[in-house]
Amino acid sequence: MKNKILGLGWLVAAAMGVTMVASGFQATGVKAGVVDMQRILSESAAGKKVRDDMSVQVDLRQGLLQFVNTNKVISAEQADKLKTLTLKPGATQADKDEVERIKTAIRNSSKKFNDLLVKASLTDAEKVEYNTMNEQRRNADNLLGQWNQEFSGDLNTMQDEMLAGVLKKAREAVQAVGKKDAYTMIFPTTVAVYASNDITDAAIKAVDEAK
């Protein structure tokens, strides 16, 4: 999931298009430059923060999926509470302690199921308990599929929203550098075959200095 999510959105660099920095285009006296939007997104402080923040969110969801996949004897109530507290923004220590309490209870249930699984003979009460746990395991498989789809959608949306702010700063930085250095137009490196005037470093600096 991480590679897939963190690889999305950065491709919007190509959407930069041609940035006009003068009132019009003229065949003579043209000063053209290029900018690597991918580098701005990946090397600017704002871009790095998006990557770091997204990495945290991906890790939280991957950890949740992996835990449930390993410990499938989990009730619907436990699953809902575990997801809510794990993904809660600004989780308190009390929230984290509750997560560990829930995980311990789930692990104990999984151990109990495995013990019943290998027991030669079950009592009537144990058969009921075993069947209940086995049903929870089947439900967990469905839940994992639902969560995986839900998390992918959430992370895509989250990344798009975070990147929108960085892209706005990047465009403004490119325009500011272009006007300051009297460029007629600036092309993204994705479409420019060659240009000696690369303003990427100046643009990254401008993004980092922007408030």
Rg value: 26 Å
Task: Please trace the helix and strand order, writing H or E for each element.
Answer: HEEHHHHHEH
What number of domains?
1
Given the C-alpha coordinates, what overall shape results? elongated
Please tally the β strands and state the result.
3
Helicity, as a percent range: 55-70%
Strand content: under 5%
Look at the helices and sheets and give the structural class: mainly alpha
Name the poorly predicted regions.
Answer: 4-27
Number of helices: 7
Q: Look at the structure and give the mean pLDDT.
A: 86
N-to-C CA distance: 32 Å
Description:
The chain is mainly alpha-helical and 211 residues long. It has helices at residues 2-7, 37-43, 45-70, 76-86, 93-118, 124-180, 200-209; strands spanning 19-20, 32-35, 185-188. The protein has one domain (2-209). The chain contains 7 helices and 3 strands. The protein has a 3-stranded mixed β-sheet, with helices on one face. Helix 2 crosses helix 3, helix 2 (37-43) crosses helix 7 (200-209) and helix 3 (45-70) runs antiparallel to helix 6 (124-180). The longest helix has 57 residues, at 124-180.
